[in-house]
């Protein structure tokens, strides 16, 4: 009986901690089945809350110890409501020099909050779409990594810019 109480308390603490995230405007994850295929695009539809404030944008990633690389290359595309598109190829460090995976988490699943854009103003009304796909390559090989293992979830986050007062 005491074990059930401890589990219940732990669940309440986790939910409380998650609900205290006052900077969050949009924060969603989508699961990647088993392996992330190089042609698989993870998409997020975002309706911005206003067109006057600036926001910070992040790519969130959950990965396990099965992730074999020290870095990660992503292609992130933002489609604006009136047809404009911005496409970036981004590189993130995923492990330290010893090979230990970076990120937060107590188990073998690590969560990484990766900067995408800073101070973005959503000045067009309507829905924005963010598309994310991996662009990993092995050293010395021309073709990309067909199936990227170790990535379990891909997310996108929009945050209010935290005040420095």
From TrEMBL:
It comes from the Bacteria. Keywords: Signal. The keyword Repressor does not apply. Residues 1-19 form the signal peptide. NCBIfam families: GldH_lipo. This is Gliding motility protein GldH. It comes from Neotamlana nanhaiensis.
